[in-house]
Design goal:
- The chain is mainly alpha-helical and 90 residues long.
- The protein has 3 helices and 2 strands; from the N terminus they run αββαα.
- The protein has helices at 2-28, 57-76, 83-89; strands at 30-34, 38-41.
- The longest helix has 27 residues, at 2-28.
């Protein structure tokens, strides 16, 4: 049960960061966090790495759903035996 809650927390934090990025960072384009060392810059990637398969959203949704299903099956069959492997699956 803790892993489901952890997954929900990861998902919520990911969605919050993406929301902040679109609402705040998109407006300014770039923002220095640590001057001279770290800056955040807004960029869109409509595909996979380097925009490959741009516009193939349904492909990514199907692949992600299959992957999640496989992980869920493996979790239920106790393929992940250590705390670290369970955390990695989350």
């Amino acid at each position: 049960m803790i892993y489901i809650l952890l997954f929900a927390a990861f998902l919520a934090s990911d969605m919050l960061v993406k929301h902040w990025t679109v609402e705040v960072l998109k407006e300014v384009g770039s923002m220095e966090v640590l001057p001279g060392f770290l800056a955040l810059t807004y960029a869109e990637n409509k595909g996979a790495a380097f925009s490959m398969l741009s516009g193939a959203r349904w492909f990514f949704i199907v692949v992600a759903a299959i992957f999640i299903g496989i992980l869920w099956y493996m979790y239920k069959k106790n393929y992940f035996t250590t705390w670290w492997s369970k955390l990695g699956a989350v």
